[in-house]
Design a protein that fits this description.
single chain, alpha/beta, Aldehyde Dehydrogenase, Chain A, domain 1, Aldehyde Dehydrogenase, Chain A, domain 2, 2 domains, seven-stranded mixed β-sheet, six-stranded mixed β-sheet, 15 helices, binds nicotinamide-adenine-dinucleotide
Length: 501
């Protein structure tokens, strides 16, 4: 597998990309940035874009534009049906431009366009959910004595800064922008330095859909410059963050040290997939575990990267997963034939490789994979990898690798499975495989996670669509995201107390 991938006809390349500039008040803005950095096409290592690192002046301009638009009120005060019409039109435009958005993301960070999950089409559906949801949020009328009437309406928080990662660039923008704008806020969006293009295209499409200029502004650049300036800004009312736990902790410090802005933080994970040898369909489990390792090359926050399997089934399960991983088609993420892409960057590639090297320095720990792939291409391809015979305190068991690597641990009984599953600094997701319904419920109730999936996608259900909410536990973050409760998180309750005698 060390040959170069074939070149995809009509693939986007560096020459197809517009320059990356802040987008403020509906217009590109010349950045005050003194320095630049270079991004690379992860499928071949070629230089892609030179991007300004960003500057506090860019952030000040964007926050001022957002504040002006908020005070002016053309979005905040718009009737619900008007907001709904704009967001629905925007969702339609996202769907219309889905192929380009997916190709931009594939070029910048390597998600294969053939993988439908968290694609631009699903981002369009998510935007539609928020458009439909915005007039379903109700205020309260409180029980009070007959001398007064007390109501609690909910209103926008003001200027929201949204700081997002690179792993699903389009979708991660929409998961913030949809509810923040549906709630009536004005927003400054900071995309990851590795994936700015789809964020800027989304902002232009928002204008076309009728969102007033200044309501959505984008400031690209480095996290420690632009992201930090936003999280420390005295005129930002809320910062909503998705990214690593390390940076999430800093965001909380910046907020606390500045104006005590509200923080929502969706951070890292090390989620367990718990497999009981009690009559479950081992092929269905193996297929789902293989899919989860391959999806976006394991660069998924909720990836079940800790496989906890009952000791009597461990060897059989690994034997079933191996051939499914061997069947991958690595290649150009922009090609419809590619099922497996590169990692996002050289730094991420080196990080994942070093976890594998350190773990396999001890014999008998590599159950599958571990090699670099498509070496001739210059791209950042790494084989899906299964590690086993590990102590529970090994770094590959405890730390988020954010790559296609699973660590397999065994348990003897239900109590041990629960203990191992919760023995983590993180609390994002858990996946339970058992033929015993009562046991599945016991386990689900015992999990300390934002979401627990029982018989994880044994049937490919769409569940409640975009209507579910999750609230991470422990160092996976804080605050609700998703569904109606996720929209409410972008609003503030106010008590209005009429004394009428
Ligand atoms: P990251 O934390 O390095 O960066 C995330 C964002 O924060 C980027 O825009 C970055 O520029 C910015 N940033 C970096 N340093 C900053 C600073 N000092 N101040 C302010 N902003 C700063 O994460 P990443 O590598 O882009 O993404 C991978 C991480 O995201 C993983 O840990 C993954 O689990 C997490 N993630 C979580 C969820 C979730 O819903 N819980 C979803 C997707 C990704």
């Amino acid at each position: 597998m060390n040959q170069a991938p074939t070149v995809t006809p009509n693939r986007l390349t560096a020459k197809d990309l517009p320059p990356v500039m802040p987008f403020v008040d509906g217009l590109p803005l010349a950045s005050g940035s003194a320095d630049h950095f270079v991004t690379h096409d992860p499928s071949n290592g070629d230089a892609l874009l030179e991007i300004g690192c960003g500057a506090a002046a860019d952030v000040d301009a964007a926050v001022a534009a957002a504040r002006r638009s908020f005070e002016k009120g053309s979005w905040r005060r718009a009737a619900p049906h008007e907001k709904k019409a704009v967001l629905s039109r925007w969702a339609d435009l996202i769907a219309e431009h889905a192929a380009r958005l997916d190709a931009l993301d594939a070029l910048e960070m390597g998600k294969p366009v053939a993988q439908a999950g968290f694609s631009a089409a699903s981002a369009a559906a998510l935007m539609n959910f928020n458009a439909e949801a915005l007039d379903k949020i109700l205020g309260d009328v409180l029980s009070s004595d007959s001398l007064s009437t007390v109501i609690q309406p909910r209103g926008p928080r003001g200027v929201v800064a949204a700081i997002v990662p690179w792993n699903f660039p389009t979708y991660n923008c929409v998961i913030k922008l949809g509810p923040a704008l549906a709630a009536g806020n004005s927003v400054v969006l900071k995309p990851s330095e590795l994936s700015s293009q789809s964020a800027l295209l989304l902002a232009r499409l928002a204008l076309d859909a009728g969102l007033p200029p200044g309501v959505l502004n984008v400031v690209p650049g480095r996290g420690d410059i632009v992201g930090r300036a936003l999280a420390e800004h005295m005129d930002v009312d809320m910062v909503t963050f998705t990214g690593s736990t390390a940076v999430g902790k800093r965001i909380m410090q910046y907020a606390g040290a500045s104006n005590m802005k509200v923080v929502g933080a969706e951070c890292g994970g090390k989620s367990p997939q718990i497999v009981f040898d009690d009559g479950i369909d081992i092929d269905a489990v193996a297929a789902q575990i293989a899919r989860s390792i391959l999806f976006n090359q394991g660069q998924v926050c909720s990836f079940g990267s800790r496989i906890l399997v009952q000791n009597t089934m461990k060897d059989a399960l690994i034997d079933r997963v191996r051939p499914l991983l061997a069947g991958i088609q690595p290649g150009d993420p922009q090609s419809a034939d590619t099922s497996y892409g590169p990692l996002v960057s050289k730094a991420q590639f080196d990080k994942v490789a070093s976890y594998i090297e350190n773990a396999t320095a001890v014999p008998d720990r590599l159950a599958y994979g571990g090699r670099k792939l498509l070496g001739e291409s210059g791209g950042y391809y790494i084989e899906p990898t299964i590690l086993h015979n590990l102590a529970p305190d090994n770094p590959v068991v405890r730390e988020e690798i954010f790559g296609p690597v699973v660590a397999v641990l065994t348990f003897a009984n239900e109590d041990e499975a629960i203990r191992l599953a919760n023995d983590s600094d993180y609390g994002l997701a858990a996946y339970i495989w058992s033929a015993d319904m009562a046991r599945s419920f016991r386990l689900a109730h015992a999990m300390r996670t934002a979401i627990t999936v029982v018989n994880a996608e044994a049937v490919a259900s769409f569940g409640p669509g975009h209507a579910y909410s999750g609230e991470p536990a422990r160092m996976s973050g804080l605050g609700v995201e998703g569904g109606l409760a996720g929209l409410e998180a972008y609003q503030r309750r106010q008590t209005i107390w009429f004394n009428h005698g």
